[in-house]
Specification:
The chain is an alpha+beta fold. Among the domains are: 163 residues, no CATH class; 175 residues, Flavocytochrome C3, Chain A, domain 1 (Alpha-Beta Complex). It has 18 helices and 23 strands. A hairpin with a 2-residue loop joins strand 11 and strand 12.
Length: 570
């Protein structure tokens, strides 16, 4: 244990400042604990603030009013069918039982408001118990003028891929309408642009949109709720070591502003610091190869700190080779990669390997696209990188990576560095193949097949666009299949696609109460973990949109209640 003359005592110490951390801190305070939240960076919110802000919560309290039916039995059948035996049954049942309670609590007791994304289907429609909508909740738009100006600016920024023109924020349903050109998208864009430009006084100070959506809406509402309760949040305050006495975690050594301080926590410590997204050494040690931190969309501050501290205290690790996978693009001049969530499903594009051949259903869950990249990556048929190829019609109609639709941002308006180092453009498919290093014959054959499929509406190889999840990101104006269109009009475009992720998901072994376990599967007294530093309740899969933040928020809630209940029980 580190010796330090300066000490602070609280009941419950929370390390990290994302959704898991803030939810746990709020609940602990409401149950009567003195709480302190510490964050190592100058920005709070972590990967949660950069995320889509969705929570996957089966059987939630908002479903019935929105016209959706669900039961605990259906939720269990689906989750069990997705996750399998990689996670103990007790943990999965704890999630399904507590997630609806946690969401209702936060919606009723805090500034957070949520709504259902109606047609955001579960990712695996073939699994019994799947729903075509209702289980994905997202934070409703949050007015950041409710926060102190300094508090808003200290929140980690929205990821660029979630902004229109790198400026305006949209909730998921708005983003879907805009990106897939659904009916009403133009008036929506005009309204949001007017609101953004109309915030004149703020525009003179910052380009950030004070109408927060997605992850910034979730974190903004939770941060305001924390401030309402007077719970302190220390920034620039990394945790260096857990304080352990006679086998129990009693707090942590914190360095605040360069000054060491022992923070003692009578009831327990909640670790919620994220994964090891930005730790290249840990990526190379645990993740499938090849892997690079530059391919990640996660928080730059996620370097595995909690995993290291808890391991020193005897914690066991699970599923360290896993992540919340998704295909990403690395854009010159941007801090983090962008994930291809919508682009891969839009009609008129195709993902191929170096042989010019398809190897995955592009509309599959992003988790599965990357798993297919690794599974099919061999010397004779390299899939890393893969390549997204599309034509002039796709370029004109749809945003793609850092590019706005060509109708709004012609090629001559694209930043020179992106034209030189990111996007490739050619008059023929053979010329594009040469620029990308793809086999031209293979690419021609693939495009011929895609064009035939577009005409019939049937993808004979991978069945793209045949279920509700696929069609969520399709262009509804395109028939007979909203996810298929010809790739025929020159010029042709393409860029590299990498096996990235929203964040790593392997971490500390935990039980159904979010208690950290040692190698003997015994709980380490006083130590809890939630979020991406803990092993995922979703195992190796990704059942639906919000499968990251749903468990993070829920097990922050569970950890706080459990720690206080045990302390009071003596």
């Amino acid at each position: 244990m580190q010796k330090c003359e300066a000490e602070t005592e609280v009941d419950f110490l929370v390390v990290g400042s994302g959704a898991a951390a803030l939810s746990g801190a709020i609940v602990a305070h409401d149950f009567g604990a003195r709480v302190l939240v510490v964050e190592k960076s100058p920005r709070y919110g972590g990967s949660s603030a950069m995320s889509g802000g969705g929570l996957w919560v089966p059987n939630n309290h908002l479903m019935a009013a929105a016209g959706f039916a669900d039961t605990p039995e259906e939720a269990w059948e689906y989750m069990r069918g997705c996750v399998g035996s990689d996670v103990p049954e007790a943990r999965m049942r704890a999630y399904l039982e507590n997630a609806p309670q946690a969401v209702r609590y936060l919606c009723e007791r805090t500034r957070l408001r949520m709504h259902i994304v109606p047609d955001y289907a579960d990712y695996y429609q073939h699994v019994p118990g799947a729903k075509e909508g209702g289980r994905c909740l997202e934070a409703s738009a949050f007015d950041a003028r409710q926060l102190e100006e300094s508090e808003f600016l200290a929140m980690r920024e929205t990821a660029p891929q979630e902004l229109v023109m790198n400026r305006m924020s949209l909730v998921i349903s708005e983003a879907q309408a805009f990106l897939t050109r659904s009916p009403g998208w133009m008036p929506l864009f005009a309204r949001r642009l007017g609101e953004y430009l109309g915030d004149v006084a703020w525009r003179l100070k910052s380009p950030r949109d004070r109408r927060c959506a997605m992850g910034n809406a979730l974190i903004g509402a939770l941060r305001l709720s924390l401030a309402d309760r007077g719970v302190p949040l220390w920034l620039n305050a990394p945790a260096r070591e857990l304080l352990v006495e006679r086998g129990r975690v009693r707090g942590a050594a914190i360095e605040r502003g360069g000054v060491p301080r022992n923070v003692r926590a009578r009831f327990g410590v909640l670790l919620a610091t994220g994964g090891f997204d930005n730790n290249q050494a840990l990526r190379e040690r645990f993740l499938p190869q090849p892997t690079r931190a530059e391919w990640s969309c996660g928080n730059p501050g996620s370097t595995g700190d909690a995993i290291a501290m808890a391991s020193e205290a005897g914690a066991a690790l699970e599923l360290m080779d896993e992540a919340w996978w998704g295909p990403t693009v690395v854009v010159p001049g941007e801090e983090r990669a962008r994930m291809l969530v919508i682009e891969k499903s839009l009609p008129g594009g195709v993902i191929v390997n170096r042989l010019g051949k398809r190897f995955v259903r592009e509309t599959a869950a992003y988790n599965d696209v990357v798993k297919a990249m690794y599974a099919n990556h061999r010397e004779e048929s390299p899939c890393i990188p893969a390549y997204l190829v599309f034509d002039a019609d796709f370029r004109r109609k749809y945003p793609c990576g850092p590019l706005l639709p060509g109708a709004q941002q012609p090629d001559w308006m694209v930043r020179g560095e992106i034209r030189r180092r990111f996007i490739r453009k050619a008059g023929t498919l053979d010329e594009l193949a040469a620029l990308l290093g793809i086999d031209p014959g293979g690419l021609r054959a693939t495009v011929e097949c895609m064009n035939r499929y577009a005409g019939s509406g049937v993808d004979e190889e991978f069945h793209r666009g045949e279920n509700a999840f696929d069609r969520f990101f399709g262009d509804k104006s395109v028939t007979p299949n909203p996810c298929l269109a010809p790739i025929a009009k020159p010029p042709f475009y393409g860029f590299e696609v990498w096996p990235g992720e929203l964040g790593t998901k392997g971490g500390l072994s935990v039980d159904e109460h979010a208690r950290v376990l040692d190698a003997s599967r015994e709980a380490i007294p006083g130590l809890y973990a939630a979020g991406n530093c803990s092993a995922p309740v979703m195992g190796r899969t990704y059942p639906g949109a919000g499968s990251t933040l749903g468990p993070a928020t829920t097990f922050g809630f569970v950890a706080a209640r459990d720690a206080i209940a045990r302390a009071r029980a003596g």
